[in-house]
Amino acid sequence: MTGEKIGPIEIIMGEKQSRAPYSTTLLIRGRQGSTLIDCGGGPAVYAYLREQNIRQILLTHFHPDHTSGAALFPEAQVLTNPFDYGRLLNQAKREADDSPYRPVGPIQLIYPYHQLMTVSETKLLMIHAPGHSDGFCCPYFPDLGVLMVGDIDLTSFGPWYFGPDSDIDQFIQSAQQTLEVDAKYFVTSHQKGMFELADYRQKLPQYLEIIEQREARLKQAVKRGCSPGELVYENIIYYADNVRQTPWILRNEQMGLAKHLLRLIDHGEPYADYYAEFMQAHRLQREQIRQLHQPSWYGRDWKGANQK
Ligand SMILES: [Zn+2]
């Protein structure tokens, strides 16, 4: 197994072409050992990586498709962002040892956003890019012109913003800001692999347009008189058949539609009554669909946390 290489970086697709629950991993080779960005490639990828003297694993965010293999490298230091440190610690404590959601052994360290670091002799900056999740970030290698855009993944499905801490407008803003980064190569986490600048610049707007298409379908359905209870079966985000058959897809559809309705209200459109009925019909509470977190170590000294 080998992936595309840019300088010391190897881009390793996960199993099933990095479709969730798998994702793409970056391997950065150094003289003293290697660093991973994310660790959700699947068993075949982990077998390859176990030969690579992995000393450090940096997780872009807490979703299991990016973290699930980290526990298989007990000799490596695992770092995450300031938002996800507490979350991953709690997850590790809560889940049974054999659970796929027991993602990582102890998370030892927090990396700071927007501070130039050196990993395996390669310069790296973790750019905070909230929206997909609140702590989500895009690893940037300035000397190599590589930006890992991760879950800004340009898939034909479109953007994923169905977590309690996801935010649609933040997603759009973060995605647009990736174009301001001086990069030549844009590495996605799922299916599509790597894009060069011209291609990425062309495809990103089409990908973000899917958000507006979903919202237009939502508005049309409401206009047609579709009830809040039935709105989830209108093929707005997922196909209705999948929503009917799969509980987690129903959940994502509910979350996504609730977030779109809130976004419409935020943008001054008259959806407050419909939103209230939607929330009631689907037994959702506002705090389930819009959770605002502070970073785990907000107001504390990150370095203090790192010395433990
Ligand atoms: Zn994710």
From TrEMBL:
State the Gene Ontology terms under molecular function: hydrolase activity
Among Pfam families, the record links this protein to: Lactamase_B (PF00753)
Indicate the segments forming the Metallo-beta-lactamase domain, all copies. 22-190
Keyword Hydrolase among UniProt keywords: yes
Q: Which residues cross the membrane?
A: none
Instruction: Supply the SUPFAM superfamilies for this chain.
Output: Metallo-hydrolase/oxidoreductase
Protein's job: Counteracts the endogenous Pycsar antiviral defense system. Phosphodiesterase that enables metal-dependent hydrolysis of host cyclic nucleotide Pycsar defense signals such as cCMP and cUMP.
**Which PANTHER family does the UniProt entry name for this protein?**
ACYL-COENZYME A THIOESTERASE MBLAC2, METALLO-BETA-LACTAMASE DOMAIN-CONTAINING
Q: What is this protein called?
A: Glyoxylase-like metal-dependent hydrolase (Beta-lactamase superfamily II)
Q: Which organism is it from?
A: Brevibacillus fulvus
